[in-house]
Predict the 3D structure of the following.
Amino acid sequence: MKYRFTRKQLCIPYVAFLILFVILPLLVICYYAFTNGEGRFTISNLTGFFSSQNTIGTLAYSTLIAITTTGVCLLIAYPVAYILAKSKLKKKSVLLTLFIIPMWINFTLRLVALKEVLTMLEGNLAMYPFLNTIIGMTYDFLPFMILPLYTALMKLDDSLLEAAYDLGASKSTVFLKVILPLSTPGIISGITMVFLPAMTNYVILDMMYNSTYIMGSLIGSYFNAYDWNSGSMIAIVLLAIIFVITWASNGFQEEKSNRGALL
Amino acid sequence: MQMIYNLKRKKILRFLILLVVTLLLFSALPGAFKVKAREKDETIVLKISNWEEYIDKGDLGEEPTDIGLGIISSKNGLISDFEDWYYETYGKQVVVEYSTFGTNEDLYSQLILGDTFDLVCPSEYMIMKLINENMLQPLSADFFDKSSEYNYYAKGVSPYIKEVFNSHEINGEKWGAYAAGYMWGSIGIVYNPKKVNEEDASTWSILTNPKYARQVTIKDSARESYFPTLAILNKELLLSDAFKNTADYRSKLYALMNDTNPETIRRAEDLLQKIRKNAYSFETDSGKSDMVTGKVVANFQWSGDAVYSMDQAEEDGLYLNYSVPNECSNSWFDGWVMLKSGIDGNVEKQLAAQAFINFISRPDNAIRNMNYIGYTSAIAGGDSDLIFDYVNYCYGAESGETDTIEYPLGYFFNGDNDDEKYTLIALKSQAKRQLFAQYPTKDVIDRSSVMGYFSEEANEQLNQMWVNVRCFNFDQVTKETWVKVVVVCLGIALVITLFANRQSIFRKPKKKGYFREE
């Protein structure tokens, strides 16, 4: 008779991982966020976050960058994913791979190359920091938008489209009333995968010579000045924002599926 | 069945326990042996932490490399050479545990978080902070005994470095009592002489000069950028002859360049905003390559990195120059200090640590380091002329070359700048290039000031200033931009509402009743 691992035993490595690398760090961040330099409880970090011009300005700037990046990614990725999913090409997978290949190369390397290309096109990179940041971010995050959209559109049943055409819908109506609603889960997971990193990925800003801080760089600057408390508070607020967004988008998805079930 | 199962389980358990015990034994045994061996040989473990890429690691090539004057960079690197040398000289085994740090602040947090090192190599202001916090072990008296054969540091250190280390104090304690100089240099501007004229590059105001808009870089650090900002703020005073000729010019300069008055910081913040609008980037490392590839024309740089940039550009046929602005420059020093927490009263360890300083201060080893790192060693060589010969070997003019100048370096080598013996005959161009970056002239030294360690409060204000400069602020947005933003938002909202209600707005209302088609 063989010795079998019970389900509980199999869970041990996973639980240990969770505790060590997810829960403990979070607790440490929470501890720092709600204490002052002497280790006493305080909420001044929280009030400091919302009363400081700098953090609010940075939050607005990061959000602007994240929204623009997500918008541009969506605009580029949707047609690409649709064409990839619906084309009758035999070598579809080759096409998809072409879009994913850049992901196999380290992103800082890709940015160095992009910098040279943009310098050739624009002359002086430092003249257009915002534009360059958006280009850099889009370049990096595009595959994360294409993939979920592609999977969502692949699953789309062609007979639904045929039915819509049969019932007299025009092309635009079919897209707006059938294709778009059915691909919302893909859109939402694409947005969450692009929006959140775009808010904090300051390496791209640094490399594209955008000297304005976003949330990630602001946390870094506080940590460099040994102000662990304010830095942790920014991290906590970001976490809260991320949590709210994810929760809202999940709610949105559920609502959709319920309606589908009712119909 | 149940019994068999239990039996098997017991067997497995026993087997597992045995396995664990054997494993533990095996892993513990070598350790036990090691401890015994250590006690027997009294091996000294020396923990050293240094900047990254800041010592000859001997990986220049497969074979030992001759770097000129018959000095051989061995394959093993200086650390391994030190271990051998120590055994041969003192008959004791020493093992160096070598690690690196990225910034002074990183090193300090490591120390605060409980890492122990015996010997570290921070910059002057961090040395001051560590002295102030009573964390350093003073160098022993026999370290400075010049009669001992192996005291290469005491015998070889440059009189200029010695003067700096003994004239600067914190809390009445001289740096020199705790720290031995390693590398030193200035800050200045690397520029492309074809794009920037020399006059423009000879002032810190180049950072705000609209002629070079978005073509100059500045350092991405509050401390590093604060210095040139202060120089621009006090430009007129710094350049005036009256100020330069005051009796206590040096101490006044020091006070001026270490001014952390809140009002001064506020003015610096406004100026940094201007610099930011004029600069290509805030960089720590990318400036070198951007300079070489021609993305920028001028680059605020440390002297050692300036040498690196010039060397790299030369390989592409581009000749860059280095200038130290006329207002003033920041002279910086990295030095070896011993930590109380690591040495912990262990005399053997302290001797080994001091022997390490002496070993890397031996002229041939100092040259190996200079060749590897590109910065300037604090060692002048003392009785040995090896280092001056090396400078001559690198930068001296070949016989027969006509466009040469006399380049006096006596201030560094023996304290007498008029000494013919230490006057280099160099190509004229070198007075603006690598030689000048590596060994600045006496007048640059005279207008250089150290940037000391700031109080906690001042540091906080500086960091706040830096965050204010770097963050997006709604106050910066002009009215025009606000109008544009509002118009764009309204436009988008309009398009969406129109699109959503297109049926009711654009479709013609159906006429009531029945009409026959005509």
User: Anything to note?
Assistant: The interface with chain A takes residues 4-5, 8-9, 12, 105, 109, 214-215, 276, 279-282, 286, 295, 459-460, 463, 466-468, 470-475 of chain B (CB under 8 Å). Confidence is low (pLDDT under 50) at residues 33-40 of chain B. DSSP finds 24 helices and 20 strands in chain B.
